[in-house]
Amino acid sequence: MSSRPLLIGVTADLQQGPVHLQHIARAQYVNAVLDGMDAMPVVLPAIGNRQDARGLLDRLDGLLFTGSPSNVAPAEYGAPGEGRAPADPARDATTLPLLREGLAWGVPILCLCRGHQELNVALGGTLHQYVERLPGRIDHQAPVHDDPNVRYANRHWIDLAPDGVLRALAGAPRAFVNSLHGQGIDRLADGLAVEATHADGTIEAVRWTRGPGFALGLQFHPEWHVTSDAFSAAIFRHFAGIVAAAAAERTPA
């Protein structure tokens, strides 16, 4: 009898559609789990305190925290004001507790774009709300274009930490990525180590260094090129291997 597929929780947004509120997880994230990990994606609605995080983590093998057009609310990291629009308080109320529980349980976690920022905030770090306004920083936002393949094309180089996971996966000191964002990490949370930076000082990737689990945060979008770019594919293969190993340890012989 074949073993069950690995189950990867994929976070969703709560967005207003033309008529109805919708829980949305973009196809690129779902397909990256299917194609890049040979695993089964399980979309997690943004339901806040109605979510049973511990119950979910008892059933899921890994977690993918997705990117989003929305931004983490500044109140979540002690900053004043309403912050950069749009917001998604239902997602904040869902993902931040789930991240903390996931790390406590040692469930493998991959965080992309907004997820990367959520990881930092969940652990007590802060965010720059407008990276492009900071002295010496470039504008990291996506170009305005109707073709998503143009919007999500690789745009700039990042420098990879010599002793990091990404450096080993890339087999090189730098990588060319599609880092598209308005917010970014300001104060790095305790327990996170920098995996990659842009030349302007923006933190482009982090990893969790405490506790039994694995968590990697990427400001860029490897899900868009998981079947065509070697570095993107290597990230998801590596995550799949970690998830499989953790699942094997949790499964009784």
Structure commentary:
By secondary structure, the protein is of the alpha/beta class. Helix content is 29%, strand content 22%. The chain has seven helices and 13 strands. It has a nine-stranded mixed β-sheet, sandwiched between helices. Helix 1 crosses helix 7 and helix 3 packs across helix 4 (114-122). The longest helix has 21 residues, at 230-250. It is globular. The two termini are 15 Å apart.
Briefly, what is this?
By secondary structure, the chain is of the alpha/beta class. It has helices at 27-37, 53-57, 89-105, 114-122, 148-151, 165-170, 230-250, and strands spanning 7-11, 13-16, 21-24, 40-44, 62-65, 109-112, 127-128, 156-160, 174-177, 184-185, 192-197, 203-208, 215-218.
Helix content: 25-40%
Widest sheet: strand ordering:
4-1-5-6-13-12-11-8-9
Whole-number mean pLDDT: 93
Helix count, DSSP H or I runs of 4 or more residues: 7
Q: How many β-strand runs?
A: 13
Main sheet overview:
9 strands, mixed
User: CA-to-CA gap between the ends?
Assistant: 15 Å
What is the percentage of strand-forming residues?
Answer: 15-25%
Order of helices and strands: EEEHEHEHEHEHEHEEEEEH
Helix/strand-derived class?
alpha/beta
Query: Which runs of at least 5 residues are low in confidence (pLDDT < 50)?
Result: none
> What form results from the Cα inertia axes?
globular
